[in-house]
Structure formats: structure tokens, C-alpha cells
Design a protein that fits this description.
The two termini are 33 Å apart. It is elongated, with a radius of gyration of 21 Å. It is an alpha+beta fold. Strands 2, 3, 4, 5 and 6 form a five-stranded antiparallel beta sheet that branches. A two-stranded antiparallel ribbon has the order 1-7. The mean pLDDT is 85. It has helices at 24-27, 107-117, 138-141, 156-165, and strands spanning 4-5, 16-22, 36-39, 42-50, 54-68, 75-90, 104-105. 17% of the residues lie in helices and 33% in strands. Bound molecules: zinc ion. The site of zinc ion has 7 residues, from loops.
Length: 166
């Protein structure tokens, strides 16, 4: 399910709590980085309230991506956590939020802010030693079929370059 802030009219009376998950196919995060691919469901625990002329939604977002370390090329779970996420939705003016059936779809706002949090060079951790310069079998170095036919004994670094250019 996408996240909808519902019953906007009732927000005048009291804030509402929203919690649950958004499935990857609902969130549709299209990572521009080939090192950051599919994700698990995003978890959210939010509170929506009405201010004078806007809605404020804030709370906790967490999502785990399948990432590849840009230094050692190992796959690792990349956890993106926004413990104090906040989203202002103006109710007036040019930026006015679209309210349909007394409900606002928060999914695009969540998607945008998660995308902004994605690291430029995902790293599996501070202790990452990078690519090891000893011969390895093809399959243990790269997750995908990136080998060029006729290529002779490529070093891990040239493979890393190919991978980044992809
Ligand atoms: Zn690493």
C-alpha cells in the first residue's frame, strides 16, 4: 500500500498516526546508481497534523537497499534511515498539495527524500579494504555478467572501471 494521509478534514481536531510499510513496487524508487538496486519494503511510523495553512507529516522512515560496495564490489545491505523525516504540505498558494477524496498521497514525497539520502559511493563499511589484488574467479568479484569476450586476465580494477561505466 502507498501511504495516504486520510481524513484531512478531521486533522483539525487531532493529529493522526500512520504506520506500516510501502512495498518496493509501490514506492518505485528508481536509483540512478547501478550500485544501488532493489530494495525491501519501506517502513514508516509517522504523525500527520494540520497547521494553520499547511499539513505537517513527520516521523520515521527506514528502507534497506541491495547495494554493491564501490570499493570492494561486495554486495551488502544499505540501510537508509530518516529518523526525523518531516514534510510540509501547503494547503494554499502555488505549491498547494493535491487533495483527492480528503486524502493526500505521501508516496512521492517519501520517494524523493529517500532518493536524496542515497550515497554517491556506497561503501560496505568503514573497515572496507577495497578490492583485493589477488587472482579471483570471475564470479566471486562481480555480481553481473560484465565480462568482455576475449578479455585476458583483467585485474579487479579494470573490472571496477567497467562496472562504474555501465
Ligand atoms: Zn566494501
Amino acid at each position: 500500500m502507498a501511504i495516504h494521509l486520510k481524513n484531512i478534514a478531521k486533522l483539525d481536531e487531532e493529529p493522526v498516526k500512520l504506520s506500516g510499510t510501502i512495498l518496493p513496487e509501490e514506492l518505485e524508487i528508481d536509483s540512478p546508481d547501478p550500485l544501488i538496486r532493489g530494495s525491501q519494503a519501506l517502513e514508516y511510523d509517522l504523525t500527520g497534523e494540520k497547521l494553520e495553512d499547511s499539513l505537517l507529516v513527520r516521523g520515521y522512515l527506514e528502507i534497506v537497499f541491495d547495494a554493491t560496495c564501490s570499493r570492494c564490489l561486495k554486495s551488502f545491505p544499505l540501510r537508509i534511515c530518516l529518523p526525523d523525516w518531516a514534510c510540509y504540505l501547503p494547503l494554499t498558494g502555488d505549491e498547494k498539495v493535491a487533495i483527492e477524496c480528503d486524502s493526500v498521497d505521501l508516496t512521492p514525497y517519501v520517494r524523493e527524500d529517500v532518493l536524496l539520502e542515497l550515497p554517491q559511493h556506497p561503501s560496505c563499511g568503514d573497515k572496507c579494504k577495497g578490492v583485493e589484488f589477488r587472482p579471483k574467479s570471475e564470479s566471486s568479484v562481480l555480481p553481473g555478467p560484465l565480462k568482455e569476450p576475449g578479455e585476458s586476465d583483467p585485474s579487479a580494477w579494470s573490472k571496477l572501471d567497467q562496472f562504474k561505466l555501465k
